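Hi R.,

Here's the chain you asked about this morning:
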Amino acid sequence: MEPNQPSRKGAGRAFLISQLIILPAIFGVLTLSAATVNTRPLMPVLHENPRTVRPQYDYDFVISDRQLNEVLHQLRPKFSPDKPPKTNYVDHALRFWGTKIEFDDRALDGAQLRDLLVNHKTFAEAWGEHETPLLSMTPHGIAVRTQQGRSTVSHVDHLLGSLAEVGTPLSYKITAANVDGRLIDMVRDGVMNFSLNQREYEWTTLALAFYAANNSPWYSREGQEISYDYLANRIMRETQPDGVCYGQHRLYTLTILLRIDQQMRDQSDQQPSGDESSGGLIAPQTRDDIMDYLGDMSRRAYQNQSLEGSWDGNWPDLRVPVRDPDTDATSRKVLATGHMLEWWAMAPEELHPPRETIVRAAQWLSRVIIEMEPERIERNYTFLTHAGRALALWRGGFADELYHPVVTVSQSHALLPLEGSN
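And here is the predicted structure, written out as tokens:
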């Protein structure tokens, strides 16, 4: 044996000692990592009551009082009495009319609309006990049946967005099949089952933003960090007009993110310095990116408006064929034009196209709605609620605040002249 070479017995003892030191250290690191993962928030921090985001403009040159009232009169939630109203009609009507509206005819009042959606007993009375429930208990909370026929909602988490926009608190009672819960249970199920790979996530983002207490991130069940910045950037990555409703839900959600972010920043300016709740909903860079993105969408829409004032399903690029050419052209145009006017009505003024663009679109839309037959209104009701809501927003309020019951609707539907026209 060489004099400087350690014995095998000594080397073995040294290796054993090193393992006794290293293994607990590795175990400690793994334990710490597991604890860190287990303590990651799986839900964003939310307020009990959603924020209120109101329209900012009251432009009677966009639509007159008379025109708006005739539009709203046409769009009262009066559905065929011989069968239950489609659940997505009720869902859209709730978002459009809110919970306080009361009608003096067979139209569904606001409280009835919400009850049909969040009370299984009322749902079963309308659809029959044989119908699969709209709301059901899951391991995470209460799930909403989606895209499975007439008795279900049409968009992922659209009901959550509707309930948020009409001011429903998270503690509001929700009666699912065989279980009573609260709205927070529906939110929790939506968050726990949320996937960035699902077809649409605009309404999930919208609902969470309305209840957001701050901009802290949360984590998916797979450990992926999610934040409002991340969601905004994912929305902007999608190709327009691909997606639901020609991609317009994305534009509206991004607009609401801007508005809520500004609300939070304004409130933080009034907070004591160092308050943990200070700051906006999204980072300043994300805000700038959204402004640039929506500005580009506005320019493209301005360039592609038809002579009559409408847009179609290929609104960002007229060289691209409309995806659903077999769909009724007026229905497509009502969908695209109504959604366009809706997000513009809530957007900062610097994102607006020239006023003439807005006036032409609103005048075309109001004329089409006023002249539409009841059967066609019901067939296109979901699209029309966005259109009617948009026209109300341009007059500075929501539908329930601006509607006045009328005895007869005028048969004269002349368009208002454009600014500067003879």
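One quick note: Confidence is low (pLDDT under 50) at residues 1-9, 15-36, 408-422.

Cheers,
M.
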